[in-house]
Design brief:
By secondary structure, this protein is α/β, with parallel strands linked by helices. It has one domain: Arginase, Chain A (3-Layer(aba) Sandwich). It is built from ten helices and eight strands. The longest helix is centred in the middle third of the chain and has 30 residues. The structure holds manganese (II) ion (MN).
Length: 354
């Protein structure tokens, strides 16, 4: 592979304590894509969401809120100086998502009344269109991520719903071989074609396990809402899937175990290469009030950052991350929190590689 010449960004005129220059990119940083070590790929897609919609608009809101984040890498290494850059939101993807979302709403409404899909030609056509559109989206994400990885960029995917990260995980598997996924989530996302949507947000890890042989271990933390089908899949996975339920973690803490002790155990379950799939609903709802499928319970941001730092500290390689299911509400609280989580993830990823 030919390595491209790395253009070092000139930060001499950049005052990170000053008011943000509106012409700058995410977090008010002055990097171009070529200069940036880490590229954020927005994926404005939420066709199969089952409850609250809005996450297809999250990336533009997070981008706006990111300008308010103070540029300080609290984990130490000033990783941001290597450059973060967010690509423009692809309007065609957003429009396609809006169009198919409308079809999905009619379809979900229809099947929720217990009507059989096979008997309704219109519904069959909708379902086909949605499944084909989702497969195309996966291919698009795969191609974008592959191209970035081939240029030796670190990639952070910003959803969109949780289905958006499948293509990215595929590209990583091809590039890196065996790897593990740390999934922070209130849900397992292990349902087989939920509501007959092959690429449902609720099926992303089921599909990843099926379609990505390099994915050797899936470690889920914070799960507190799951079906019997998912529970059986975890139990019969021969430890390919290990789930740390929110309830279990809390009970262990009540019994006096420390988060440090529990994170030691979680880290030890992971292989040497780790991808982080961060569904914002893994956090306490006060931090993501408008996420699509909120559930009581959940983590503080710092608990998750600590876990990721411990993975880094163990010598494991962080391959990349996604941050998905951020909602958009009346005020900018969701995107404000989202931008701060994104900032931490970007720094933790870059610091792992320096
Ligand atoms: Mn999820």
């Amino acid at each position: 592979m030919q390595l491209q010449a790395i253009t070092m960004p000139d930060l001499s005129k950049f005052d990170h304590n000053a008011v943000g220059n509106p012409n700058n990119n995410i977090f008010g940083l002055p990097f171009t894509e070529d200069e940036a070590r880490l590229v954020i790929l927005p994926v404005p897609w939420e066709v199969t969401v089952s409850y609250g919609a809005s996450t297809s608009r999250a990336a533009e809101h997070v981008y706006k809120s990111s300008k308010q984040v103070d540029i300080l890498d609290t984990d130490g290494k000033e990783g941001w100086k290597q450059g973060f850059f967010m690509r423009e939101i692809d309007k065609r993807i957003l429009m396609k998502s809006d169009y198919l979302r409308k079809e999905a709403e009619l379809y979900i409404d229809y099947i929720s009344k217990g009507e059989p899909v096979e008997k309704n030609k219109f519904m069959c056509k909708s379902l086909k269109e949605i499944n084909e559109g989702s497969a195309k989206l996966n291919q698009w994400v795969y191609e974008q991520c592959k191209e970035l990885l081939d240029r030796d960029k670190l990639v952070g995917l910003l959803g969109g719903d949780h289905s958006t990260s499948l293509g990215y995980m595929k590209a990583l598997g091809e590039k890196h071989g065996a790897f593990g996924v740390l999934q922070i989530d209130a849900h397992c996302d292990l349902r087989k074609s939920y509501e007959y949507f092959t690429y449902s947000h609720a099926s992303v890890m089921y599909n990843a396990l099926n379609e990505i042989p390099a994915l050797e271990k899936l470690v889920q933390v914070g799960v507190r809402d799951y079906s019997e089908e998912e529970w059986n899949l975890v139990c019969n996975s021969n430890y390919r899937v290990i789930t740390y339920f929110d309830k279990e973690i809390r009970e262990r803490k009540y019994e006096g175990e420390t988060w440090k002790h529990i994170t030691d155990e979680i880290v030890n379950k992971l292989p040497n290469k780790v991808y982080i799939s961060f569904d914002i609903d893994g956090l306490d709802r006060k931090l993501c009030p408008n996420t699509g499928t909120p559930v009581p319970g959940g983590f503080e941001i710092e608990e998750i950052c600590y876990l990721i730092k411990r993975i880094s500290g163990s010598g494991r390689e962080l391959l990349g991350f996604d941050l998905v299911e951020i909602g958009v509400g009346q005020n900018d609280w969701d995107s404000n929190v989202g931008a701060r989580v994104l900032w931490r993830l970007c720094n933790l990823l870059v610091n792992n590689h320096s």
